[in-house]
Amino acid sequence: MTGSRLNIRMRNRFVRILTAIGALALVALPVEANGQSALDMSSSSAPHLVTPVLSARRVPDFLRTRVADEALNQSITQLLRDAPASTCVVVSDNGRILVRVNGDLPLVPASTNKLLTANAVLDRLGPQSRLATVVRASRPPGPDGVVDGDLFLVGGGDPLLFTEGFRVTLKDRNQPQTDFAQLADRIKAAGITEIRGNIVADDSRYDSLRNVPSWPPSYQKEGAVGALSALEVNRGETGLSADPDKPAKIRRLGDPPTLGAEPLASLLRQRGVKVTGRPVAGTAPEQAIEIARLESLPLKDLVAEMLTWSDNTTAELLTKELGLQAVGEGSTSAGTEVIRANTIAEGLPEHGLSIVDGSGLDRGNRLTCDLLVALLDHEGSDSLLAQGLAVAGRSGTLRTRFRGSPAEGRVRAKTGTLSDVHALAGYVDASDGTQLTFAVILNGQIAADRPIEDEIAQVFIGYPEAPAASALGPKPPT
Questions:
Q1: 280, 297, 314 — which closes off a domain?
Q2: Which of 51, 190, 388, 477 suits 294 as a labelling partner, its CA being 20 to 30 A distant?
Q3: Is residue 163 part of a domain?
Q4: What pTM value is reported for the model?
């Protein structure tokens, strides 16, 4: 629905309300026994109504809302003069649409796509579920703690298995993680003193594709996303194996299973456990017994980490987990079908919807501002989904944006950025306490010094820009 059509609907509704008020006012006038109205305006003793019955002042709250909505639309229209043609903006106040520009135009969403992934994970897998990395052996260790054979490291899809050397390279060292060294501690605590075989890394939980085939190679070469694996230690990067506690000088993507087994061997040796074999990739036998396990954070926390920091690797591994648990196939294609099905099952707008990956990296993804706002309104600002959003000027991908502006601390949103794609979707606490839900997506070139989506979000802070309802109410009779 275009802005002009929205205005026509609002005017028609306004006329209907005033007509109803007028009718009720006439019916309610008291009548004397002689049939004359007790408020007959011809009577010299009757007060004179300064405000006519059919005046907009008879509905001041509605009039104020109408003025505020018009002011907001004008401000957005002015900002969009410098926006690409392929732009959408939708804003709602508790489901009431205030602004809608190209709301049903399918656009490349970039990382706002993660909102759909997060919603599917919370719905289909459950917020308290965890992913487990398990260590197994072909036979029980001997009384002296010796494993006479291979030790199997079986990946469970945890995307945040980090050693200390990797953690200290993060933008925020307090970013959520699963301390991989704890697994070595638990193996030693199980009484293991020696492994007389190899450490075999098993990542067979998911398929063997390390990327999404339609991605450009630069995504992984430049570190936007790791090499995808069910055993993902340090994002599958090399250089952290010999001394997992120290940052690596040279890091590049390698084979994830081996790069999970190598640091485990080093961590075990640091703890006095003898490892005679070498780290290799393989598959654990079905009858292998469990020696130790390390569980991930609850999925609600993995989802929050994914949204706050726009973590592409987390998004893609959770997508594969969705596919595995829903249809028995740990693949991107299976997972994206689950995300799409979950979106449709909730009755959200599916016009033009195309989901190629879980992170939003792929330029083949398409969704609308209508969909994003409908999803955010459906979940609500107190939901687990909302709790994972970055906060303006304070956390995640918004930690340096809006800092020092009136929007700091008042905007919670999911960011989205690719070449010529800029997006922002979330919630705004306006100056009078009104909470707005919004989505902005721009596809096309914009000036480097004009973050239009940020400027639009800041306009929402001032809503409602209108006179007080008391100033718009009926004037007192004279």
A1: 297
A2: 388
A3: yes
A4: 0.84
